[in-house]
Specification:
Blueprint: H1 3-7, E1 23-29, E2 45-49, E3 55-60, H2 71-81, E4 85-92, H3 93-102, E5 119-122, H4 124-143, E6 147-152, E7 162-164, E8 171-175, E9 180-184, E10 187-191, E11 200-208, E12 211-216, E13 219-224, H5 227-235, E14 241-248, H6 249-270, E15 274-278
Antiparallel strand pairs: 1-4, 1-15, 2-3, 5-15, 6-7, 6-14, 8-9, 9-10, 10-11, 11-12, 11-14, 12-13
Helix pairs in contact: 4-6
Length: 281
């Protein structure tokens, strides 16, 4: 599907738009889920039920739209919830989709396709099968010489705040009717206007009140508050400074594979269900 065809579907579209930016979590219920929360959290949490109307978790969500949650209350919720769950943050849905699409045919990842869903309930037998497939995928990733790209939003930070896997043809990450951001063999590239057939390779950018200053392979360019600047702000999660670095796929995918294996192993070894969810914390 071409960029022009994609643009007709909304104001901002692409792999990182909509639910693509949602963070996916794997949760294992380690103890019986309490029937009610502590008194101090009573107005701040809501029960989570599975398809059979069984209570499987609690989520932090104020009962009143204008209610502010204090840091101490967030800490109290996390401490309470950790008493009956073990949770691992896997990463963005967009990265998980890209990883599953990248995996070569000889690597059986059919059990991992459940990660494509917004939410899923996985029994411990399937969790053990997922663990075996993760181990196989990890061997292939570690043996691969392919590289991806990481967006780093803090000086000296060792892990990328956003990981990208290039494709051929390039994948549209974010696009509007006027501009597009893609990832492909030529790296992270920006098309500044619809009339501009050329793209520039990005090496980073800094955000300012009146626009974006982007570092490219041919020098610095200034983007006033435009569609292109809007895409870069979204891609960088509105960070002030973003650096783009080419990194081995094994490095970019390590957090996903390590934390997913950890969760599936815990579920399988304890006979507990594994819950996959995204879009809320």
């Amino acid at each position: 599907m071409t960029t022009d065809e994609l643009r007709t579907r909304g104001s901002i579209i692409g792999l990182l738009s909509g639910t693509g930016a949602d963070l996916v979590r794997a949760t294992v219920i380690t103890q019986a889920v309490p029937d009610r929360p502590p008194l101090q959290l009573n107005e701040l949490v809501a029960p989570v039920y599975d398809h059979a109307a069984h209570l499987i978790d609690w989520r932090l969500t104020p009962h009143h739209p204008d209610q502010k949650i204090e840091d101490a209350e967030i800490s109290a919720f996390r401490s309470w919830r950790a008493s009956f769950t073990a949770e691992r943050l896997l990463g963005e849905r967009a990265l998980i989709r890209a990883f599953l699409d990248w995996t070569p045919p000889q690597c059986d990842t059919r059990a991992l396709d459940v990660l494509r869903l917004p939410s899923a309930h996985v029994d411990f037998h399937t969790a053990l099968e997922m663990r075996l497939q993760i181990d196989q995928a990890r061997k292939i990733v570690n043996a691969s010489t392919e590289h991806g790209y990481g967006l780093f939003t803090a000086a000296g930070r060792r892990s990328a705040s956003r990981a990208l896997i290039p494709t051929d043809p390039p994948t549209v990450l974010l696009a509007t009717a006027e501009a597009a951001l893609t990832i492909g063999p030529g790296g992270l590239r920006l098309q500044q206007t619809a009339a501009d057939n050329d793209t520039v390779r990005l090496r980073g950018w800094t955000a300012h009140a009146d626009g974006i200053r982007a570092q490219t392979s041919t020098g610095e360019i200034y983007l006033a508050e435009s569609a292109a600047a809007r895409l870069l702000r979204a891609a960088g999660r509105h960070a002030d400074d973003v650096e783009v670095h080419e990194c081995p796929l094994s490095t970019l995918l390590a957090p996903l594979l390590v934390f997913l294996r950890d969760a599936t192993e815990l579920a399988g070894n304890t006979g507990a269900a594994l819950h996959i969810r995204s879009g809320w914390s």
